[in-house]
Amino acid sequence: MPDEKKPKKEKKDASETGRGKVKLEVYGEEMVEKVVRQSGNSGRVYLPPDWVGCRVKIIRLN
After folding, report:
1. If we measure between CA atoms, which residue out of 14, 29, 24 comes closest to residue 59?
2. What SS3 class is residue 42?
3. How far is residue 8's CA from residue 17's CA, in Å, rounded to a whole number?
4. 44 neighbors 33 (Cβ within 8 angstroms)
5. What is the pTM of this model?
6. Which of 3, 17, 43, 56 sits CB 3.0–4.6 Å from 36 for a disulfide?
7. In sequence order, what are the residues at sequence separation of 6 or more whose Cβ sits closer than 8 angstroms to the Cβ of residue 36?
8. Residue 60 and residue 56: Cα distance in Å, rounded?
9. Residue 43 pairs with which residues in a beta bridge?
10. pLDDT tens, position by position, for the chain (62 residues)?
11. Backbone angles phi and psi of 9, in degrees to 5
């Protein structure tokens, strides 16, 4: 099979490489939008106290 050509590598788009924006659809109970503030060597977001013990998902918007 030396006559066979190797398939060309396809160019990955932004969603495959982890770069660029992606569309996410999330269902939940409530939403708050806040700015992450500096806290030592990391960031911090304060959430309502009644959310303690609940599962949350954080999505970076920009």
Report:
1. 24
2. strand
3. 18
4. no
5. 0.57
6. 43
7. 43, 44, 45
8. 13
9. 38
10. 566 666 666 655 555 556 788 999 999 999 999 999 999 999 999 999 999 999 999 999 88
11. -75, 130
